[in-house]
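Changelog excerpt

This revision adds worked examples to the README so contributors can see how folded entries look when concatenated. The first example is reproduced verbatim below.
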Amino acid sequence: MKKTQTKAFSNLICAVVLLIFEAWAYYETFSFKVQKRAYVQPSTFPRVMLTGMIVFTVVLLIQSLFKVFGTMKKNDPDNAPAPAINPFKHKEVLAALFIIVLCCCYTLFFEQLGYVLISAVTCAVIMWLVGKRDILVILLVSILVPLVLWFVFYKLLTVNIPMGVLQPLRDLVDKI
């Protein structure tokens, strides 16, 4: 079997594509607004997460390079044929593509709808897609988690997060 048809080669290609995306995303964090009187800036968390992602992607890239261009044992799991990703045959791939589109919509509507509302909707949809069917749990988690996180970031860490249509909630919290 050709090395270009193995899992090791597909890992190599994925690592290169991921590194390009991660470099672009890290570059974009420099355009985030700086918040006055805030210890934690809006760019801090994405940069920390991206740094971790870059470290693990570089590890995957190095391992893949050694396996593709070095000697790979026949019983190595990465020497197996790489599976084809066909969204029409694999519903998991279709769900993953839908989640990617959902995350793009999340960023598009973040300012207009606000963090709490768009996060609640996105969380509920993703929970439904991964198989959670208890409506009460979906509602509680998708509403309470964004609210609590917003409160922690807004009040304790003084990070100004857009509230969109829920601006009266911010005004109410400011009065408290």
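The second example, added in the same revision:
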Amino acid sequence: MAVDENTRKRNALELYQIDEDSIVPFFRGHIAELRKFIQEHSESNLSLLELLKQFIRIYRLPFNMQRYMSVQSTFIRETLQERVQNRQDAVSHWIQEHAGRHRDRMIQLQCLFLDRIRARLLPEIQKMLDEPEDSGKDDSSDKKV
């Protein structure tokens, strides 16, 4: 079955918001929450990959918020082009109608993307999790003035 051009463009735009280079920094930036989450779910017998997916589903955070907001802005502009009402009303309406679904779709795509890169990702995440908890903190006494 052929996919129309609009659907193809929309799919490409949705995939654009998943920035592979932001995944490890995302988890590093949330390492305390991730460790706590894994500890709380230690008896669930889920793999690290499944725990990572559950973590992003529950916390509902994009890997790269800047790209996510850029894509959402593009979707809003496309929707506004179809309407001739007050811009503020149209933006408000779009957010009410579509923002939740947009975030849900993005979270699902992130989970699917983790499957794609799991061979490279899981060793990095495991190494990060195995680091002492205070190793990720910035020690300002080591900085040169």
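Reviewer comment on example two: Residues 139-145 have pLDDT under 50 and may be disordered. The first helix runs from residue 5 to 16.
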